[in-house]
Structure formats: structure tokens, C-alpha cells
Amino acid sequence: MGAERHILILGGTTEARRLAGELDADPAVRVTTSLAGRVAQPRLPAGEVRIGGFGGPGGLARWLREQQVDALIDATHPFAGTISFNAAEAAAAVRVPLLAVRRPGWEPGPGDRWHPVASLAEAAGALPALGERAFLTTGRMGLAAFAHLEDMWFLVRSVDAPEPPAPPRMEVLLDRGPFTLEGERELLRRHRIDVLVTKDSGAAATSAKLTAAREAGVPVVVVRRPPAPEGVPAAAGSMEAREWLRRQFPNA
Predict the structure, then answer these.
(1) Confidence band for 1, pLDDT divided at 50, 70 and 90
(2) How far is CA 193 from CA 26, 62, 130, 152, 159, in A?
(3) Between β-strands 114-117 and 133-136, what pairing exists: parallel, antiparallel or unpaired?
(4) CB of 219 within 8 A of CB of 191?
(5) Which positions ≥6 away from 159 have C-beta within 8 Å?
(6) What is the pTM of this model?
(7) Which value, to the nearest 10 degrees, does the dihedral of the CA atoms of residues 207, 208, 213, 215 take?
(8) Cβ(61)–Cβ(90) below 8 Å
(9) Average pLDDT for the chain
């Protein structure tokens, strides 16, 4: 890209790590990835890494100015909604170009028994009518929404161990994707799962559970994505993001 440019990536996703690696390979680019710090041992990307929040949009704007950031890329998880709005406000305040890398969401196919809901609370409300043994793959942060379901049993999969409040009848599986179709089939079979709960996070790394559920005839409660800031250009992956950067800095 020619003259050195400082790119800040708000990361934590596969797409963010891939983009950081591709940009870090260019000696004319300084790439910094910011991680929220919610995972005890995150997979660190190439380039510089900072961990922790910025203190809201004002703190992020100040960091962008102080570190002389030339472009901001929001490649956070689709459900990390607050930081996306903070990024939009901060980028506008300091007039730094902003791009959102948003992976496509999942789409139901023939044979899927999906039940879309707007929130974890709505997912919990839908569960008793759908099954008794739930595979909960929504992460450790939202278990409180299901803590009142005392008559249900949960298999909870997360990267780090969850903390209370949580459902009284549950087994915790500490694991990190990508997950194989055969592995997901075995989990459903061994634990006699009759309903799956997931967020529409998109991407192939965690989609095998949807195929396994379809094959087994297991209904899936799908939490829809929260709204994203309007007016922010978006890319589906690292290739489109790099093309956007080239357009931002045509003479670099």
C-alpha cells in the first residue's frame, strides 16, 4: 500500500485474524488489533494487539487520534453490538474512514425446523414447548436468561467456564470451534438433545451443528442479530476489506 498506514481492527473473529495477517505481511502497513478481553486465552492475530475496552466512543476517538489511525475496521462478532455503534460514533468524530466486516448470516434450508427469536429471553420462553434437553451454544455470557428453566437439562458449550446465574441442570463442555459435522452428530446423539439454541453468528466454523440438527430432526431456536449502525460500508471478508483500503488510499 506504499506509505505506511496505521489500520486499527476491532477483532475477535476469524475474519479479523485473517485480515490482520494479510495486512501485517505488508511492511508499509502498521496493523493493530483490539480485543475485548472476554476470553481468557484468545487466539492472537499477527501485528500489534491491545486488550480491553476503550471507555466508550469518546475513548475510542481519543485513541484513534493519539495513535494516528488512518482507517478503522470493525470486524467484531455480529452480536457485539455496542462496540459497532461506538466505532461509528468515534470514526465520525475524528473523520477516520470506517468499514464493517460482517459475515453473512445463516439461512434455513429444506428440512430445517428453525424458530427465529429476537433475544435470549425470547429463546428461553420458546424452549419448554420444543424440548426437554437443550444444546445451548450461545456463549457463557447469557446463561442467566435460562436460569429459571429448572425442568430442562442443558448442554452448555463455551470457550471459558460460565459463571452463575445459570440453569440448575446443566453439563458444561469447554471447547472452541471449528467443529466437525461428525462431532456435532455425536454430541446430539450421546446427550439425547431434542432442541438446539444458537445465535445467528454466521460462518462455516460453527455451522455443522445446524446440519446435524437438520439430519436428526431437531428444532433450532435461532437468535436473530441485533441492529447494526446505518450508513457504514460493509464487506463480507478480508478480500473485500483490502479492496476497500486500496480505494481509501489510492496513492499509498
Answers:
(1) very low
(2) 47, 48, 11, 11, 20
(3) unpaired
(4) no
(5) 39, 40, 140, 174, 175, 176
(6) 0.89
(7) 130
(8) yes
(9) 94
The answer to whether 20 touches 47, Cβ cutoff 8 Å, is: yes
Please name the residue that has the C-alpha cell 431456536. 221
The CA radius of gyration of the chain, in Å to the nearest whole number, is 20
CA distance 202 to 149: 27
Task: For the beta carbon of residue 241, count every other beta carbon within 10 angstroms.
Answer: 26
**Average confidence (pLDDT) over 66-92:** 95
Q: Cell 450508513 appears where?
A: 231
Q: Which pLDDT belongs to residue 3? A: 60
CB of 33 closer than 8 Å to CB of 23: no
5 contacts 69 by C-beta, under 8 angstroms: no
Whether omega before 165 lies within 30 degrees of 0, making that bond cis, reads yes
Q: Of 84, 67, 107, 65, nearest to 16 (Cα)?
A: 84
In one-letter notation, the amino acid at residue 191 is: H
Q: What CA–CA distances, in Å, run from 197 to 125, 129, 155?
A: 12, 13, 10
Based on the number of CB atoms within 10 Å of its own CB, is 133 exposed (0-12), middle (13-18) or buried (19 or more)?
Answer: middle
pLDDT for 81 equals 74
Please name the residue that has the C-alpha cell 457504514: 232
pLDDT tens-digit series, residues 195-224: 999 999 887 777 999 999 999 999 999 999
- pLDDT band at residue 252 using 50, 70 and 90 as cut-offs: low
